[in-house]
Amino acid sequence: MDPNKEAEVVQMHQQGMKATAIAVELEISPSAVRAVLRKNAPPVPIKVLDEDAIVEAYLGSVPVADILKEHGTSYATLYKVLAAHDVQTRAAISAPGRQKQLEAAVALYKSGSPLWTILQETGISQPVLHNELHKQGITLRRPRIL
Description:
By secondary structure, the chain is mainly α. It has 9 helices and no strands. The chain has helices at residues 3-14, 19-26, 30-39, 51-59, 64-71, 75-84, 96-110, 115-122, 126-135.
């Protein structure tokens, strides 16, 4: 495709036109439009994590969910950062009090309580609760559609 047509595709897209509309307007295939847009897309900024702050928060017993929220990261990334800094991870359920919280969360789930309520009331994270439900052979409910 000639550079002038590519520039036209990019300009039309920047003005809010969808790829399929651009394809119809310029009489080219939608895949050609998408290829031009990919080729001319601005680089995606790489997110830089403050690994020292993450490690400090984790070692300071800040709940994992709070660390994830504050730093806008995932569980996988958090644990990669901890491994890179040779930080020994704390057990998900170590204290008897934590086990009681988990049992309460499971009981609430069985009684039909909404997931967000269970998480707020017990402090158990969604992945930990789902893992325990799977271990106990409890079928997960489908999300409610409003």
